[in-house]
Design a protein that fits this description.
Blueprint: H1 5-69, E1 76-80, E2 94-103, E3 106-111, H2 119-127, E4 142-145, H3 146-155, E5 158-162, E6 168-169, E7 172-173, H4 193-204, H5 211-224, H6 228-237, H7 247-258, H8 263-273, H9 281-290
Antiparallel strand pairs: 1-2, 1-5, 2-3, 3-4, 6-7
Length: 311
């Protein structure tokens, strides 16, 4: 039986429609798959970002705990003032503090003058070099024990601690630019200075088997020769359990340095004196005055009235 022309055309149309439908179906599949792949990529990127943030936060918290347990000079503490007082303005909630001295287990901080509205602005301030300004840190010093610092961390008042590498944090220096001119003329012989420099070098050479004994002996020589920095270093050694710990000998050598108007000797003596029952801080400052040491020049916040004596 022969097909009519009309039937033949209808059959061809059906065939074309099938081909067109097949092509549309393939395109639709590819279109749907491409859309799904894009969504999957975006989802994975978001997940990676979240995981990275969480991991970074965990690492920072571990670092903070380690730095609090073993503090170092120039460590930067990030503070949430709202955890210390309710009297906080909305845009003045955060600030930083810097470790400026370590005497035994007492850590001395100086707070920054600027207050920030959020945590990112604190980082931006460091990145823009604000800590390089000479007047950035307040002159007043605050002494904390290791235990009290851990308490502030647990309370949330210290929410992060960072340790600069070669004085750099977030791409900028955290200390004021130093004058490269040495106040001490290198051509002038100063008794005890050479021993002091050698002791510091040996103390860092932990690959030497008896580096502790050698550095301690050299600090002793430097101190006995009357070099103030050597006397402070020897006193510091007497505060460390790594060396022979003796608070009374530490006080003695801090005083010898203080009598030479050494600022570190004065400030560190005051810190250690609070830990020794028989130490009288009033007598100490009166001895300094008698020796002609200008305490005001040394920025010591202390009154020589009897009421300020330590019980």
């Amino acid at each position: 039986m022969e097909l009519s022309p009309k039937a033949s055309v209808s059959s061809g149309d059906v065939s074309q429609h099938k081909k067109a439908a097949k092509k549309f179906s393939i395109r639709s599949v590819f279109s749907v798959n491409a859309s799904d792949v894009f969504k999957l990529i975006v989802a994975l990127f978001i997940l990676y970002f979240i995981v990275s943030k969480v991991n970074k936060s965990d690492i920072e918290q571990i670092e903070t705990q380690n730095y609090l347990s073993q503090p170092s000079l120039n460590d930067i503490y990030f503070l949430d003032i709202k955890e210390l007082t309710n009297n906080v303005r909305p845009k003045e909630r955060y600030r930083v503090a810097k470790v400026v001295d370590i005497t035994g287990h007492i850590i001395t901080l100086r707070y920054g003058n600027l207050l920030y509205p959020n945590k990112q602005s604190v980082i931006d301030g460091i990145r823009y070099g604000q800590l390089r300004y000479h007047e950035y840190l307040e002159p007043k010093r605050y002494d904390f024990s290791l235990k009290s610092l851990h308490g502030l961390y647990e309370k949330g008042a210290i929410y992060k601690v960072k340790r600069p590498v070669h004085d750099v944090l977030y791409g900028n220096n955290v200390s004021p630019d130093k004058n490269e001119i040495d106040k001490e003329n290198p051509q002038i012989f100063i008794p005890g200075k050479r021993e002091f420099i050698e002791a510091n070098a040996v103390a860092k050479s932990k690959h030497i088997e008896d580096y502790i004994e050698q550095s301690f002996a050299l600090w002793q020589q430097s101190a006995q020769l009357g070099y103030a920095k050597g006397q402070v270093a020897l006193a510091q050694a007497y505060l460390s359990s790594e060396y022979t710990k003796d608070l009374n000998l530490a006080l003695y050598w801090f005083k010898q340095a203080a009598l030479q108007s050494n600022k570190a000797g004065i400030l560190k003596y005051e810190i250690v004196c609070k830990q020794v029952a028989q130490c009288n801080i009033v007598d100490f400052f009166q001895q300094l005055q008698s020796a002609g040491v200008n305490i005001k020049v040394r920025e010591v916040d202390f009154s020589l009235s009897k009421s300020s004596a330590i019980d």
